[in-house]
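Students often ask what a holo structure prediction actually looks like on paper. The answer is less mysterious than it sounds. You provide the chain, you provide the ligand, and the output is a string of discrete structure tokens encoding the 3D arrangement of the protein together with protoporphyrin IX containing FE.
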Amino acid sequence: MVAHQKPGSFRSSTMAAKNHLSLLLLLLLQLFYSGRGELQMNYYAKSCPKAEEIIKQQVADLYYEHGNTAVSWLRNLFHDCIVKSCDASLLLETVTGVESEKDSDRSFGMRNFKYVNKIKAAVERECPLTVSCADIVVLSAQYGIVMLKGPEIGLKTGRRDSKVSYSHLVEAFVPRHNESLVNVLSLFSSIGIDTEAAVALLGAHSVGRVHCVNLVERLYPSVDPTIDPEYAKYLKGRCPTPNPNPKAVLYSRNDRETPMILDNMYYSNILNHKGLLIVDQELTSNPLTLPYVTKFAADNQYFHAQFSRGIRLLSENNPLTGDEGEIRKDCRFVN
Ligand code: HEM
Ligand SMILES: *[C@@H]1O[C@H](CO)[C@@H](O)[C@H](O)[C@H]1NC(C)=O
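The corresponding structure tokens follow.
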């Protein structure tokens, strides 16, 4: 356009300016009316101004009743967002023949789902059918992370809820307890999460627990040589038999030093050969990830900054927005 302009011609340059202006208007109109909305900060500012405050309060109240709810909100974010998108598909109940995501083997050990409904009910009382369960998954994790003394992240909202369960995708996207680090890194990379952010996200294993069924493979018949021998003794004490009853609540804490604090102790632990899962321990033997482990172990603030970046990327994976999906009334069922 500019190339065709006669130099010094006042008339043609105003025309060009007008053209640019209408182009801009067109772009703006497209942005606002395409029905394909975008995630944004405080999406509910007008439609439900108290939404975030209510969720924050509920998360705090639940934390003081049952501290491990905050841990659950963090794991929920991972399991919901990694499968297709953060769309609360995780929260759906099993219905006639379709096993729900949360009932799948890969969700073993997940807990506190009933309290999600308590948070949703409090939000529904204030603003019926306005705030999605998907945003409740994300915001409960955001505030849960703060209760665990992790970073204040500030995540976008405006997600909608899926109308279906993606249980058939769970096996492809939720890694097993014995998944290799290489596979986990390529899984994250497939949804736009780089290696450093992935290493930071695994720092979530600074809190919570692992059940013996997910540990014994590294203890029996022989101890995985990458586990510190003293620590292996401790773990065998926690998990005394090679075939634990999956129903028995035998487990070990992820981090014995600060089990309820989302800090960089996880990285010191794995540097000391005290990683519980294969994927945790492999972070220190893979040359691509070891430099990040060392950096995070030395600097909690830096770890928190990268953890925040990882959570933001994960939480923005492929959202349903605009008129896609729905706003569920009860997080356990499609409307
Ligand atoms: C990518 C590889 C990952 C694998 C293979 C993995 C696997 C596991 C396993 C096996 C457990 C123990 C379950 C049990 O026995 O009760 C667990 C717990 C946990 N995971 Fe992961 N996880 C991964 C990534 C993540 C990420 C990215 C997050 C969050 C950002 C996360 C958050 C948690 C939390 C908070 C727990 C503790 C749950 C509780 O105590 O209730 N995990 N994970
Ligand atoms: C991972 O664990 C499952 C069940 O615990 C087992 O069947 C499978 O063989 C293990 N995979 C590897 C690569 O060790």
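The radius of gyration is 23 Å.
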